[in-house]
Amino acid sequence: MKYRFYILLYLTFMYAINFQSQGLMEEKNNFSRQDTLRGSITPERIWWDLTYYHLKVKVDPEKRYVSGENTIKYNVLSANQTMQIDLQAPLNITKVTQDGKNLKILHDGNAHFITLTKQQVIGNTESIIVQYEGNPKEAIRAPWDGGFSWKKDANGKHFIATSCQGLGASVWWPCKDHMYDEVESMRISVTVPSNLMDVSNGRLESIENHGETTTYNWFVDNPINNYGVNVNIGDYTHFSEIFDGEKGPLSMDYYVLKDNLEKAKKQFTDAPKMMKAFEHWFGAYPFYEDGFKLVEVPYLGMEHQSSVTYGNQYKQGYLGRDLSGTGWGLKFDFIIIHESGHEWFANNITDIDIADMWIHESFTNYSESLFLDYYYGKKAASEYVIGLRKTIANKTPIIGKYNVNKSGSSDMYNKGGNMLHTLRQLIDNDEKWRLILRKMNADFYHQTVATKQIEDFLSKETGFNLNPFFNQYLRTIKIPTLEHTIENKTLKYRWTNTVANFEMPLKTTINGKEKWIYPTSNWKKLELTSAGTSFLIDENFYVFTKKVN
User: What is the CATH number of the domain that holds 23?
Assistant: First the structure.
């Protein structure tokens, strides 16, 4: 896995401190033992480090039933004989074995504690096999809730897909279901009726025909987060192209329902355009070994690693709508651009706790603007991201509760994107900003990270102390408000509605000339050359203003 032993110990210590400090707050929010077992790095998780999964699953569409097993390989980091495996009801673990011997299982809701009889020696690599079956939870409103989507296409053939962000991969397969530990590589073997095809992550290794059923074997050569693993089953047809990328030839494969082939060939031209723009802004696509895929599914879409799912009905914008209201949102297919942006922010750089999901969503929301910037210019990009402000609620903070699998506000999308757009203005150097984004993806390549790591990185690279900035936008619902007044030939101004030590510079236009001011919580004065001066604040800064007497 990405984290070495000492890093894991450090993170466990920091999480324990954070968890204790949140105790009263979490009780008030009625978090349960199951929330803690799902969302924290428990003693039964921390002692072993994931290295490999081989997930074998047979899908019976008629019965909406799955059965199979997961071989889990791991390195022993410290002494322990109890292992936590996660699988959510109504699915059942039927058997767990190690070296062919049946193991005892203690079921505690969706957490299952396996008693290992073999001595677990530090430094050794071991494995267990977890067998399971049942009717998995059906996703009612995918991808916002998790599970299987059991649909049919226009020809009456089964059209099936999984999605599980937030709720977790354990809603459909047994795993170590916490973001902090990503498996290093994975094999996915899915058996389906022979008139259908499965498309999963990574590259297709082989196809096994069994008469009435067919098994598709896929291999993922890179670390992958659990919720990024997917199964997509349908009457697919395939086309592909090669993109000449920063690391050489990149295979770009597209799997769509047969009736939609011609529409897809036209609509998916946004995919290489996306790759060109995002490699410019963020650096090389992080998963060349696994290729890139767009896969049609019966829901809107999701950022499954190297297997991005698509359900935008072959329309521009978001199902044909421009979320920004500026017109720029209709210049691209929202799902292709947004969900593919997650390959850099979610799949390459992954949050260590779902409370920090802003790392995924804020940067990816902002990537939409950067796509526009690359093809239509900075003005178009700015108008788009500013246009999204009307959807910001500012009711709860962007960062959620730690150790209980609780994400923060949906403002992590549009508010988070505007926060990053504001940060770009502070840097006031577009090339420097681009290099920072590229360095971020290089320095945190294939890593799971916490908010503090991102804050510290950006503070170092920008040369600013950004702790108050992030405290303001991530941890409160307050929007910085510039109070100002002009008396005779004096401009007075200050920040209000801010956290402690908030001192963000601000670009303004005074009498038609651009000028930076440096407000704090205390009133400052600026002597002007004439009375009746016009004073405008650069709208690219996500702040409020208030004229006072």
Answer: 2.60.40.1730
271: domain range? 235-477
What is the distance between the alpha carbons of residues 12 and 8, in angstroms, rounded to a whole number? Answer: 6
Please list, in sequence order, all residues whose beta carbon lies within 8 angstroms of the beta carbon of residue 465, skipping any fewer than 6 positions away: 459
Task: Give the confidence band of 323 by pLDDT, cuts at 50, 70, 90.
Answer: very high
How many separate domains does the chain show?
Answer: 3
Q: Which of 217, 229, 220 is closest to 170 using CA atoms? A: 229
pLDDT digits (tens, 9 = 90+) for 123-142: 999 999 999 999 999 999 99
d(CA 20, CA 305): 34
Residue 499 has what pLDDT? 97
Let me know: does 252 contact 275? Beta carbons within 8 Å: yes
Please provide the size of the chain in residues. 549
Do 67 and 162 fall within a single domain?
A: yes
Question: Among the three residues 452, 477, 502, which one is the final residue of a domain in this structure?
Answer: 477
pTM of the model: 0.94
Q: How far apart are CA 154 and CA 546, in angstroms?
A: 55
Q: Give the closest residue to 450 by CA, choosing from 43, 41, 176.
A: 41
Query: If we measure between CA atoms, which residue out of 372, 367, 317, 343 comes closest to residue 243?
Result: 343
